[in-house]
Amino acid sequence: MKILSLTYEYPPIGGGGSNVAAAVNEELVRLGDEVTVLTSGMQGLPTEETVEGVVVHRTACVRRHRHYTTTAELLTTLLPTYRRGAQLIRAIRPDVIHAHFILPSGPLARALSERFNVPYVLTAHGSDVPGYNPDRFGLMHRMLKPAWRRIVAGASAVTSPSRYLAELMQQQGCSVPVAIVPNGHRPHPGLGTGRRNRVLVVARMFPRKGIQHFIDAVAGVDGEWEFVIAGDGPFRDQLEAQARSVAPNVRFVGFVDCETLRSLYESSPILVFPSIQENFPMVLLEAMDAGCAIVTTNAEGCAEVVGDAGLVVPRGDPQGIRAALDKLMHEPELVHDLAGRARARAARLTWPNIVGRYREILQAAISQRSPANARTIEVPTVSTPQLLR
């Protein structure tokens, strides 16, 4: 297959959804497909490069931060990306367009599909679905919901990494069956880092990530444990001020590179992910692979990823987080048991186990557009894949 992958964020820009897009594309290349990525650029990044066999084209736009963007900045990506997309379609003649993020990549996919008669598949990642992230995009989602429904209706297939997000999409008027394809990861060989008495939080710093509740949870905790928060974002200054006031034992390390992050995972027996709303948090999967005992919330995406491999507390509940931490800090046997469960669950959710499902869906889209429609593959409606059970 020749695949044109549209995604407004692509490493080193973006967060979880960006990394998922890159992993899917690289696995597809390993299976023999040709993948060309069209994404937005940023000062200091090349306009074209090949990464792990994937050809990446970046268009000019306004973007000031690598790990988050604004609605106004997103709008500057549309016209340059559409023009470059038309040029690429003429040059490479893709069989299918795979758009990550229904907004803002979906409108481009639909416009290019209609112009060049190339089918498109949409993969949702969370904030591109109305109702998922109302604290940042509520007004925009309300304004764009009719257009969102048209974009989804024109797709040959729509995928979601979690049952929760798939059901939310259908509640918002998605008329296309949604296939659940969980996110995966590449198992890390390990750095051999020894554990220390540390509780780790890894998250982009937005209010919905719930870090403020973690800080309240560890306020006044004395003893031999340290509390480290890794990540960055627009909420960081407020969180640091809160920590100085109630929990000066909390240390912020900011954004860290992949190797440093892996070292933090391996050296921290406990990871807390206190998010209030999530789709499929990659942080949990990475920490599970590293053998962390997990404390997370009953936000749908978090509980769905962790299953029985962690302690789940009510969202927005500092006392619940505190109780779970007290339990783990005083029961090393439970930490060991949860770490083993986490590794076993993460071992099922690897990209080689998952990417074949994407490949089937993309091939189905090509077949459905073909005049000879005999080999159409039916895409199932919402269901929980065995990998997440």
What does this entry show, briefly?
By secondary structure, the protein is of the alpha/beta class.
**Low-confidence region ranges:** 371-384
Radius of gyration: 21 Å
Biggest sheet architecture: 8 strands, mixed
The N- to C-terminal Cα distance equals: 31 Å
Structural class by SSE content: alpha/beta
Gross CATH architecture of the largest domain:
3-Layer(aba) Sandwich
Number of domains: 2
Question: Which fold name corresponds to the CATH topology of the largest domain?
Answer: Rossmann fold
- What share of residues are in beta strands? 15-25%
Contiguous helical run count = 14
Topology as H/E string? EHEEEHHEHEHEHEEHEHEHEHEHEHHH
Instruction: Assign an overall shape.
Output: globular
Strand order of the largest sheet: 3-4-2-1-5-6-7-8
Describe this structure in words.
The protein is α/β, with parallel strands linked by helices and 389 residues long. It folds into two domains: 2-184 and 351-388, Rossmann fold, CATH 3.40.50.2000; 198-348, Rossmann fold, CATH 3.40.50.2000. It is 44% helix and 17% strand. It has helices at residues 16-30, 71-75, 78-92, 102-116, 134-153, 163-171, 211-217, 236-246, 258-267, 282-289, 300-306, 318-330, 332-348, 351-369, and strands spanning 2-7, 34-40, 48-51, 54-59, 96-100, 120-123, 157-160, 178-180, 198-202, 226-230, 250-254, 270-273, 293-297, 310-313. The strands form two sheets. Strands 3-4-2-1-5-6-7-8 form an eight-stranded mixed β-sheet, with helices on both faces. The radius of gyration is 21 Å and the shape is globular.
